[in-house]
User: Fold these one by one.
Assistant:
Number 1:
Amino acid sequence: MARGLLVYGINHHSAPVELRERLNVPEEALAQRLVELLEVPGVEEAVLLSTCNRVEMIACCSGDVSRGELLHKALLADSGVTPELAEPHAYQHMGREAVRHLFRVASSLDSLVVGEPQILGQMKDQYLLSHGHSSTGVVLNRLFHKSFSVAKRVRSETGIASKSVSVASVAVDLAGKIFENLEGRTALLLGLGEIGEVTARQLLSAGVERLLVANRTLETALELARELDGTALPLERMAGYLPLADLVVGCSGGGQLVMAAEVSAALKERRHQPMFFIDLAVPRNFDPTINNVDGAYLYDVDDLASVINENKGSRRREATEGEVMVEQEVDSFWQWFEGLELVPTIVALRESVEVIRTTELMRTLDKISLDEESRERVDQMTRSMMSKLLHLPTSVLKEAGGSNEETGLLSATKRLFGLGDPEK
Amino acid sequence: MELAFLQLAATAYLVSALAFGAHVLWSVKRAASVGPLLLGLGFLVHGLSIAWRTVDSGFVTVVGFAEGLSFFAWLVAGAWLVAQRRYSLSVIGAVVSPLAFALTLAAVILFTGTRAVPAELMGPWLPVHVSLAFLGNAVFALAFAVSVIYLVQENALKSHSAGSLLNRLPSLEQLDRVNFTCLAWGFPLLTLGIMTGGLWAAAYSGQFWSGEPREIFSIVLWVLYAGLLQLRFTRGLRGRRASLATMLGFAILVLAYLAVNVLPVAGRHGGGVLS
């Protein structure tokens, strides 16, 4: 039976997070799971991919593999999830589809956030782990290496990863459109929300020099200030520090803390150096009319969300270019994969006919006496007969490579010419 | 030959303007490098046209409306080239290229060939005054272009309609800084232009100031730009207001130029195309 490629699993498109988290394979269990997978009849090579968005098995098989067994060995194992619960969410891709699926996953075209970079790293780690346990062979080694290079190509030749899609990185991007650079700037953080902290960290790593942390309870502000090498101050005294701040991040639960008039005054004191207000709090910390003050730029969560949405849209548009690249690479991989079986069959066919030709030729030439020149002529004649006979079958086989006719033609050839399995 | 080069330059400017438009407005990636390249190329060919005339007549002549427009357009493109090299702000070309195209096209349409300079106007001050005055105007034109980009970018930021336009334009601070740099160069050039003009006038008529419209406009401009710089230093005038004031200054400059050259006003700065 022909060798085939198979992907079996669940992902964020097919299964809810409750199921995904129950089926997630912890890293330490991966090795054991691979051993069990290779025991499934027909599975020759296998890699298990388990991230928070997907649990998938990629396998190279010979012959049919029982779906039920895959379900148990690849997905369920000892998770306690019943087959009835998991089965409807599982998908299976075969042949070219499986290759395309893997390339799309690696290129982050199949990710929840298109273009996110983590998936490639996770895939590399888990492939190396499988490789280390000798569960991969010629086919999967080549398939995974190819998928990494496809991912690299998609990433560098399209813009799928060029636009920010998180609140903190969008805030940094916007700051870069107001200020020439963030080096030497001062950021003022109001309140201690998690999102505010993430944003503050990102601003610091983008070059912001001083961080002021204002909070109602000074102790908690001190804690974060110490950690981020900033200065803590009580929220009541925040207004006095406003003119120092180039960027003001609001994530306090205290409601409206900064009014437009205060910003006008601060700007005057700053000689109208621009100020960027990032309001991450709900209810909002900054008076919305601050945005009307000359030199002040205000973005609240909704404004940031709409930028994120737009960037996601742009990533999706870029992704269509990525799909085209994936398609080309699937073709080239598939050609190689098909050749794995096609070429040995054609070689075996030629060899078996050559054996017949030479045996028959010898037998005949032994019986009749011919001069050297005539012997050569007879030899030449049998050669051209053979190559004319084989020409059509060979070219039909080559043309069928990659099409759905191929498997049928290959097994027909083997049967008609008694070739057996060329690999054995 | 001079006209052929001029037509070629106008074409380069036009294609450059279209490429800039395609890149900035519709984010056509392939057009990104075409705009700057053709604007630079246009500058070179345009330079050949001016060089041809200079060799032909033996001196830097900017006599007549068409030549003035052509010389001005060439200097504006040149000022952009310098700014682009120094601040890598090639996107300003999106405003500079259509401006250069419009000016050069007008120069092509109004082209008259070499005209002799009236003998009494000749003198050592002529090329100095003309070059300085035009260079100052070109730098102000660049400041105008920077201000336009500033207002577009500021509008994008304020309206939160952000989008991809935002990504292709430089930061407000950088635009503001380059605007100020342009004013800081343009103002002394304007001052020197006025002074050399006065010296030239004094040399042939004995009168430093004759009160013709061009002189009055120049003084108005000088006061405006002086005020702009003064407010910048003392009150930190910057950003949107500074950009609007810069654009106002350039509008006055253009009006003055057109009024003096097109309307039938007598004076040494133009006989008046309509007269």
Number 2:
Amino acid sequence: MTRLTLIDNKKAYVDGYKSIISIEDNEIRILCHDRVLIIQGEKLRIASFTGIEMAVEGKFHDISWSK
Amino acid sequence: MLKKLVKYILGYYILILKGAGADRLINICNKNKIKIWSITKNEDALILRAYRKDYKRILGFAEKTETDIDIMLEKGIPFLLHKYRKRKCFFIGFLIFIFLVWKYTTFVWDINIEGEGYYSFEEIEKRIKENYVPIGSKISGINCKWLEDTLREDYPEISWISCELKGTQLNVTLTETIRDDTIPARNVPCNIVASEDCIVTEILVKNGVAVVEAGDEVKKGDILITGVVNIYNEYDELIETNYVPASGFVYGQIKRSYEDEFDMNHYIKNYTENKKTYYSFFIRETVFEPFKSETGFVNYDVITDYKKVKIFDTFYIPFAYQKTTVSEYEPKLSTYTPEEAEEKAKNKLQVYIDDLRKKGVEILENNVKISIRNGKCHAGGNLITRELVGIPSDISLFEQGEDTEE
């Protein structure tokens, strides 16, 4: 199970992710349990991550899931 | 903040990853528990931060994932130490300096007193330094509550006092009681006598019996309020004599003579452009004057500016420096104009009057005349004042014996 915690549209904590698929300035794709979490926005960066939790920062425009 | 500090102490790289396997490299690092953070994309490169100790492992994974890896920046203390490895003395000196500063912050190096009025700053400071908290005392050994109580006992005019340690400074804040003009109360039998020749203007007895009344002219030492209280019966026979500490207010009108004289000729200082400045350094009581040299001036003024060294507002350390400026001047004989002389005489008289007023003396008349004769300016005359004239005086054995015999 993946848990996503949002703080405004500036910070997101992704708990229970599997791996990072791609990192771009305006889009970060993260592979979670059985789907992909897509975070779109501006000046995106992975502030920190451990084996189970990741913090993404930036100005978010859209957050979506895809299979 | 703490995390940032830890990262800085351990040292970290800002790395640039280029190539198709950069994303994969990050995942591999994560799986292998290599701490990386602040990952951003810049054009076709990934920028991230990683600890110095993990760099070799990351390099190994970069080869496997065919990722180019470059060091963009090195940050942290290990890199600084490496960079300045040939300047060991500088670092050792710096560390000693930090240690000394830390060590010195555990002692008191300055005493600040606020709110004093009747008691002078120097008086209280000297008492604290010599008896209770010498400069250089360990902060941990100072009991502010005890100091407050002790100072309150030493200075009865203090109504409220607070002692507080701020940094390396002992702050003493106090409030003094409002002094009234009553004659100091005594616990032993006494009289109130005249302190000056005067005309009594007002008398208010609190304890004892008034001997004079308003309008009476008295000499210095005359009894104004007696502490010998005789009790008579209805036939005017003395039945008892009590000796009490006399007290009360006695105001009198005093004629104070004033005389002042000064020469009309005087020297004025014409400062030349010759000036010498040097600095002195103080470590506690020891003075170092490495730049002091003989000025060779015959007539000169010395102006000193003493400053204690402090870190922030209240972290004083036992160092001080002093800027000394020696300015040469040429004395030139000059003569006051009559107006200038009169102005100067008036100013001196005003200082004298202000001093009297501070002591609670009221000036009723000013009969001082200023005149210039024989090259001198003379101010003379008298001031009529109204002031407290009663002071306590012991009851003499003669008085006691005389009364007892009756």
